[in-house]
From TrEMBL:
Species whose genome carries this gene: Gordonia caeni
Domain called Response regulatory: residue spans: 18-145
Entry-annotated residues carrying 4-aspartylphosphate: 81
Entry protein name: Response regulator
PROSITE patterns noted in UniProt: RESPONSE_REGULATORY (PS50110)
The entry's keywords: Phosphoprotein
InterPro entries: CheY-like_superfamily (IPR011006), Sig_transdc_resp-reg_receiver (IPR001789)
Amino acid sequence: MNQPNGSPGAGDDRVVARILVYSDDSGTRAQVLQALGAVPGERTAARLHPDLPDLECVEVATAAVVLREFDTGTVDLAILDGEAAPVGGMGLAKQIRDEYEPCPPLLVLIARSADRWLADWSRADASAPLPVDPLGLPREVTALLRRRARRQ
């Protein structure tokens, strides 16, 4: 987990979980942010569970920026749109899993349940449906963040 805005020692003692939300579609990013209690365009969101830190959501529209964010080492969980173009979230998840160690949890959004096998191939930790389920997505994110906290 990180200090707000990924800046250690910035005078704020709060710990946040930094969530990267990748989609080329601003509507999909907005669905994810709303499900997590965030307002599109604002970085912070409500706490999903009392046992977890506040969320800091980072919206990303291109694969290059996703990789740049991962290079900082401050991403605690990534939600990747499997329908994004030209670089889909499943291929990006596979690349991230292969290139970053330790790798934070990865959740891939899929439009068709038949694509779950592709999410498994990508080595994502979880998948969730598109359009976003406003009750299911926070449950998945909570489970992934808890699992990550137990490993640290």
